Amino acid sequence: MNKNPIIVLMALLSALLFGASTPASKWLLDSISPFVLAGLLYIGASIGVLPVLIRDRALSLPTKLPNKTKSLLLGAILSGGILGPVLLLMGLSLASSASVSLWLNLELVATVTLGVIFFKEHISFHSLIAAMGTVIASILLSLTGGISGIYAGLLVFGACIAWGFDNHFTSLIDGITPSQSTFWKGLVAGTVNLSIGLYLDSSLISLSTFGYALLIGIFAYGASIVLYIGSAQQLGATRSQIIFSTSPFWGVALSALLLGESISITQLIAAAIMCGSLVLLFFETHAHEHIHHDMEHEHWHKHTDGHHTHDHDSETAENSQWHSHRHDHEGMSHAHVHLPDLHHRHGHE
Question: What does pTM read for this prediction?
């Protein structure tokens, strides 16, 4: 698999930032409704990537995108931007921050299951064992919270299913950059949820609460989503999600530091199992003869992976660095170690 440390660090930092959103959101739910908070978090995500779009002169309406890309973006907005955060915050309002953080491990199960059933992802033996280890860790962690509300658990599980679909949709989006995808998801989903929240409860929100919610959204959702999309397009949704599945433990650790919630021995044991699962993931190799057809698309890439041999108008250092633009791929047949990324969505007999 691609063991580029930068890509792996992107996925880990994405997990840390998102993990921090759970205890931070729990603190805000004392004075704001789940719908309003979900809206502000995603509007904050949109604000967070706006400077990048302005710098790259990439702030344009997605109306000219191919229908497939628009459908994927709409699916990501509905599942990951509107439904997922609202269900999570509803569950968070009924349970402790640590418990909700632990339940978020179910997102891995949802992503793996959806990947195999709907998105033609190949799951090797190592990946399966790594996923099972994370599930076992999730079960052990969940036991530490006892029965802290069946409704909260069901709501969080629903959020994980929504984000499972979102993970696959976003990993397949091309034609727009991760920053553009995050901007439109945040703007549309945030506006929808904020409007619903204000309609259901027109109570005034303090400026400090408003500002804190946007700040959490800028970092825990905006920066986290951009980093995750970038890593998922290179590692594949399932592998990126296994790394991203560390976010619940980050949430537990930050819940202890910020909210004073305790960490048990069982939680530490589960964390060790999760770390072992991630280490196992790095021993995975998947290679076979496969065919690439002619295609044209846009996504983040660099010219050292054997798939991007096109020339630029001028020879610059850009060729060896990560960059994004519309480019052509010539048809080819070869064998190499690869992942279920944008160029390797083929099935297996």
Answer: 0.73
